[in-house]
Design goal:
Blueprint lengths: L1 E3 L9 H21 L6 E9 L5 E10 L2 E8 L4 E4 L5 E5 L2 E5 L2 H19 L12 E7 L4 E3 L11 E3 L3 H11 L7 H14 L45 H6 L11 H9 L11 H8 L3
Parallel strand pairs: 1-2, 4-8, 5-9, 8-10
Antiparallel strand pairs: 2-3, 3-4, 5-6, 6-7
Length: about 290
Amino acid sequence: MIVKELDPFSSNDKFEKSGRDAEESVAFYLRRFYQNDPSIHVLNGIRFKEDDDDAAQIDHLIIHASGMIVIECKSVHGKIKLEEDGQWVRWYGKESYGMGSPIKQAELQVEFLRKYLNKRSTNDNQFFDHVPIEILVAISNNGQFLKPKSNPKAAPEVIKMDQIKEHIEKIKNNNPNEILSEKNILKICEFIIQKHTPIIKISEPLKVKEVTAKYEVIKEKIYELEITEKPENKTLNIKNKEEKKKLICESCNIPVTYNVAKFCWTNEKRFNNKTLCMDCQKTINGTQ
């Protein structure tokens, strides 16, 4: 779902206009792919500002149950290249110029985002240090990215804009553990919108989509956040010993996720009323 659209934009600078076109292109793809997907929360054009005037702007932020994705847009209508020594170069016509690393730029945004949210969370355990935040650098579809000959697999984060869905889905599949509950996702979205500080002043205050209306408006702090599952597969949302026991495979005694256990519970006849890991489920099914 689209939680926040891009802010109004006005500029006579051709480079700023080109950058804005890139952001609008990515926003278009995100809207097309995820407008009706309740599991993906899209915030376009987010800007945070600290008390010391340090600020960070994130072109697009994706929040889902397994973590977050920061997307950096680059308007590229010619070529950009990652040199053997790690330097980045871009071409305007036949002229080449050095440029900053877009990957490093996105990594700095992630670092700022973690610190900003941790600082304002009421949790004592640096909550957002446990949340995976991946990056993608989306370049124009007609642009060309040249990789070092010695490392053709370098910079996998750099993609074409029309490839954005497959890479978001790949990131989700690589992080199957659900870290954020739906309620926490909506609280984070609401908080981010409240703290967003656009460069261009807008006449009407930003409002979160109706889906978050049932939760209280968080103005200064993120309250009562809790991780659904840590990376080491220890579930924290357990209310009693009986529930904890069910999240252990009854055949090989390894921990299982809530979703795996739930699958067994809803197919109790198939698995003889037992909670089993995915490997042991295959044994029951007669396949190895």
